[in-house]
Amino acid sequence: MKILQINTVCGVGSTGRIATDLHSILLSQGHTSTVAYSRYAAINCDHTIRIGNRVDNYLHVAQTRLFDKHGFGSASATKELIAQIIEINPDLIHLHNVHGYYLHIGLLFDYLKQANKPVIWTLHDCWTFTGHCAHFDFEGCNKWMTECHQCPLTREYPKSLFYDRSQLNFRQKKELFTGVSHLTIVTPSKWLSALVKKSFLQEYPVAVVNNGIDLQMFKPTPSDFRCRYNLNDKYMILGVASHWTDRKGLQYFIELAGKLHADEKIVLVGVTEKQIKKLPQEIICIAKTNNTRELAEIYSAADIYLNFTLEDNFPTTNIEAIACGIPVVTFDSGGSSESLDEGCGIAVERGELKGIISAVEAIRKNGREHYSAYSVKRANDLYGKNKCFAKYVSLYKDIIDRQKKGQVYVPGIIP
Question: Structural domain of residue 165, as residue ranges?
């Protein structure tokens, strides 16, 4: 097989690592693989296409900020990409995030409709079927189900400072993104799959493939973390995020800090210097780390992991935590609870801090050791990256074979 992936980044961030992990698996099985990307440097990938340059990105950002036309810039860069795709002539094109200030979706999807090649599109958020935003559940907005207009989230990514073009964006996306032959949508969670089936993308088959993690890195990892932060006699409550925002539930940690017992301490990873100055002293703040071993040491030192996300697709932090042997308590929002069962954590109704506190008390009463072995086993049985991403390779083969025979892929949760 000859596979081309397209994503904003390559080897950077969660979607970039998914692309390079797939690339490695394909090469190991003797297939041909290329990753097309735009932003930052490519990591852990030896065959790439760079889409546009910084100037293209900046101009696309300006167009988004000024006119709310995200996804309709970078025309020259997209034309060059299409020329390279034609030259490569892949058997299947795998799209990830097509937003991120680097593609003209009109040009790209006009080409995809003409090319008549099998396409897999992994949705990592909801931007594809809205008129503006990537996340709407925490806002309680359902306009995407009929037609977006008067968007309440124009100041959220992809931020528009002056215009609300959400209605026209919605109509244009609907026209562009529907009617693509041999397109299969993949979502990492059942939650997002259910949303897709209510959107204008409902004509397409949808498969669920969970995100996976590197179990060689995320495992019980002893360290002197507790000693360094004077936590030896404390019950350590952990929160981790790449960017702490209201959607990630930072305000709930602030509120929880005022309700802690004397022997409890919160540790937050990923906070900025500006946020550190505003957070209460009951919270130990650690800047963002890209060192996976260091992160595994922090998970392993904790007694419990809390995820206050108000909307998320299939958060890998939950999986990373259970792989390191600590129980998880999360709001039951988005797909956040899908990786848990009663043996490794508890899901609480979104926004119910009292429920979180009760869940923490219940888990503390049982003791971390009650959950540790089972949590590690669950992560190893279900969420190893090689096992999860090998499902994509099987999906590639199935879709390509069916397309050659004139058949349609039958959707489902890939076992």
Answer: 2-212+385-404
